[in-house]
Amino acid sequence: MEIGQRVRVNQEVATVRYIGEVDGFGAQKWVGLEWDDPERGKHDGFFKGRRYFQTESPTGGSLMKFEVVPRPTDLLFEIKDRYVEEEGVENEIELSKSSKKIELIGMEKTAAKQSNIEKLLNIVLDNRSVGYPPSSDSPQFFICRELNLYGNLLYKWSTVRQILEYFPRIQELNLRKNKMRSFSEEDDEEMIEENSIYSETCKKLVISECTIHENSMDSILQKFPSASDVVAFGNDLKRFSVSDLVANRLVSLDLEDNLFGSIDNIEGYFPNLGQLSLANCGITSLIGLDGSVKFPKLEYLNIRGNVISDWKSVNAMRSLKHLKRLLFDCKKLEVEKGIHAYEVVIAKLTSLIDLNRFDVSEVERRSAEIRFLNKYAGIQDKTDFEEDIVRLIAVHGEPTLDTAKKGLTVVKIRIECGNRVETRRLPLAMSVQKIRDMLARLFKVPHSSNIRLYLVMAEKTKQHRIELDNPLREFGHYSPSEDHDILVVEHD
Q: What is the topology classification, in CATH, of domain 73-386?
């Protein structure tokens, strides 16, 4: 046991901060622990008039007898415990090749299971006590593609390197919730040369909640030259800065729950990055973002949990030319009365097909754009909206006076059902289901459930045919035009 080592005591995890005698207890050897749970202990390392160690929390420390503190285990021990000794484990092992099923009993069954551990494709050892690499008698895990060591007792990067020597073809490595120390804290004899590689094949690396220092990030990622998918949330990073060599290969990057404060603290250029998560990062503005240069291929962006309340920041996202999916707290934005913030966001960001995990359909986009035009074309201060207004007028034509401003609550619309044509005034607040019921009576259709409604929308030289398939949605949501649109009724 050594200072800095991680231990698990009755499912509680702690870091060893002191090893030695305690005044008043003779030659008894004690271990000073700093618990991950800051309220688990009784003091901060100061005990009966003497300081033995220092914890961050005033109740984060304990002293325990040396012999009662469990030691970490090695990887092979935990693999055997998880996949060999448990009953029914043959159903949990995923083998690379299927084999004929044979009923085994007693020691023969155990021996067969043990002989198969090197054929595991996925090894999951979450919340166990791995603190050391496999023992010397360990087999090589040539077939294993995923190694999940979530919540274990690793703390040295040299141990990670030693473990990966037994996994030459690993593709995904999860080290989440292992409190790793920085490279600079590694003992000289444990460090291998600076340009060494930990894994040539690992494509996805999860290093979330690992207490990784921002100055170590580039060094860590250079140890995994094939890692293009990096998950590193919850590390209290203030900035993310990596070399061009690393930035060029990143395709997906999750940096949630790091207090960057500004997107400018994601330093550098990421020419191949397609997915970026910056949720809960204390970002208050995106002004100045040049997405076409910094993130030219970005398709997915998660910025939920950040207090962004200005339209200039939304305008800055227009520079993300390939942005398709966005998670964003729209409700913090101020809008004109009678229109939702998410509609204005859709109108502004032309490439979006998904906003907050809701599909932006053709009808959703058209409705949002027309409602935006009708609401904003006539406002006095168009500073943050002028570019969008000009663009959308070119698509949809000049806006009509907003129905709310005209004091209208109904639209006069042409209705076609086969060869029969009617004109009716329909309330904008009327639900699609109530319109179905009304038209069933008008056209003598036995059941309104047999009716399908389509709004044929005319725009310049083309038409759009949109099905009104949500019975609870108000008719006004589709922004029907009295002059150009036709409501088509079909029934069985």
A: 3.80.10
Task: Say if residues 149 and 178 touch (Cβ distance below 8 Å).
Answer: yes
For the four alpha carbons of 140, 142, 143 and 144, in that order, the dihedral sign comes to positive
Q: Sign of torsion, CA 126 89 165 146? A: negative
- Residue 212, SS3 per DSSP: coil
Low-confidence ranges of the chain (pLDDT < 50): 87-114, 188-190, 192, 403-407
CA distances in angstroms from 401 to 344, 371, 406, 480, 484, listed in the order given: 18, 10, 7, 13, 15
Q: Which H or E element spans position 288?
A: none
d(Cα 377, Cα 396) in Å, to the nearest integer? 13
Q: What pLDDT does 468 receive?
A: 85
Domain at 409-491: CATH code: 3.10.20.90
pTM of the predicted structure, to 2 decimals: 0.79
Do residues 28 and 43 lie in contact, with contact meaning Cβ atoms separated by under 8 Å? no
411-431, pLDDT tens digit by residue? 888 888 888 988 988 888 888
- What type of residue sits at position 481? S
- Angle among Cα 308, 311, 313 to the nearest 5 degrees reads 55
Gap between the terminal Cα atoms of the chain: 78
Give the containing element (helix H, strand E) for 292: helix 291-294
Report yes or no: 61 and 55 within 8 Å, Cβ to Cβ. yes
Q: What pLDDT is attached to residue 96?
A: 43
**What are the sequence ranges of the domains in the chain?**
6-68, 73-386, 409-491
Q: Using CA atoms, how far apart are residues 180 and 207, in angstroms rounded to an integer? A: 9
The residue count of the chain comes to 492
Name 31's Cβ contacts closer than 8 Å, sequence gap at least 6. 1, 7, 16, 18, 19, 63, 64, 65, 66, 69
- The identity of residue 86, as a single letter, is E
H/E stretch holding 202 reads none
List, in sequence order, every residue forming a beta bridge with 30; answer none if it has no partner. 20, 65
In terms of Cα–Cα distance, which of 219, 227, 125 is closest to 175? 125
> How large is the angle between the packed helices 362-376 and 341-348, nearest 10 degrees?
100
User: Quick one: CATH architecture of 6-68?
Assistant: Roll (2.30)
Q: What is the 3-state secondary structure (H, E, C) of 176-200?
A: CCCCCCCHHHCCCCCCCCCCCCCCC
Cα–Cα distance for residue pair 117/110, rounded to 1 Å: 11
Nearest CA among 199, 233, 193 for reference residue 217: 233
CA 204 – CA 463 distance, rounded (Å): 46
